[in-house]
Records
---
Amino acid sequence: MKFVRLLESASTGGAILSAIFMGLIVLLIMAEIVLRTFFGTSTLIASEYSGYFLVAVVIFGFAYTFRENAHIRITLVYSSLGREGRRIVDILVGISSAAIVGYLFWYSAQMVMESYELEMAADSVSETLLWKPQLVIPLGLALFFLQIVAFIVRRVRK
């Protein structure tokens, strides 16, 4: 179970990153408000980077939210199953979820590579190289995938 504990620690790390990005959003918006109110100027990037940071908040929070059973679940049929039935459903749903998240990871990694190779930049004042903010997507999905694997391992070992 050391493997599962390691994966769960990674999920906690993702939650911490999510909280850091939330704090950065707050700081960036506060800076924008102060600059506009008192100095009549703007950062010119607050809206763009708040959007990038919001994606990081969501994507890095997936694994921890899953670990804590905080994702929305419909339990009408599930709750009527016995213990072994729930375990089997958990394993099957876990495998399906891992396949979907793995697919999303693969294609998000391809998107990042393509943005990097083509040197794509945001059509904004900052001209941010898009692979940099896009990189949080496959990283967060990798954490989520690993947490799903930990979930499956726990259910199989029961």
---
Amino acid sequence: MKATVHVMLKNGVLDPQGEAIRASLGTLGFESALGVRQGKIIELDLADGTTEDEVTKMCEALLANTVIESYRIEMGA
């Protein structure tokens, strides 16, 4: 079983990496990128029977800093 966790900074939290990417895109001529937010994707290989609740607990304990980050879980086969 697999799970994918998408972690992003919450709205309103400064994203210096996203701003650096946006500025670099502008330097390369891609002026249409008005804003960039950078996040991370974590892929988990899980034991059969692992529940989304267990993955949520993993996110809350380690995978996301819930003070400044939000996360979304996708459970798969």
